[in-house]
Amino acid sequence: KPGKPASAQNAPQIAAQVHAQAFVSKLGKGPSSPSDIVTQARFALELEQVIKDHPYLEPKGATVDHPLHAYVTGCRESAANRQFRKAQDFLHHIRVSVSSDVRQIHEAFRRFDTDGSGFLDNSEMRHMCAYLGWGTEEA
Q1: Which has the closest alpha carbon to 122: 104, 136, 101?
Q2: Which of 139, 106, 135 is nearest to 125 (CA)?
Q3: What percent of the chain has pLDDT over 70?
Q4: Which DSSP string corresponds to 24-50?
């Protein structure tokens, strides 16, 4: 725009790039191109959404180890090192595994929710505990 210095004209673009660089800086070494910034930010956002939906996948501060913790760490490290294909493979494995786990849990729940109510009543809970080899005190 006439009358404004060039730096003021580009301020929104510069601010957006600085924000994106700060966003991905937590991943490790800084990106070398705008394309890297976008790709790293995409991986970070996608992985963080999966972890938001399934908080037990966050390895930082976890009291119980989960088999997918190594994949989460691998995805973060690969994205930070600009190994985007490898990061994509880790993210894909995480998504497929979580989807499979959720499907299995739903199937198991439906097996014990014999009345289809969406809840396990006392009788259904006792049946599930007996099936799992737990005593009735766990029900």
Answers
A1: 136
A2: 139
A3: 74
A4: HHTTSSPPSSHHHHHHHHHHHHHHHHH
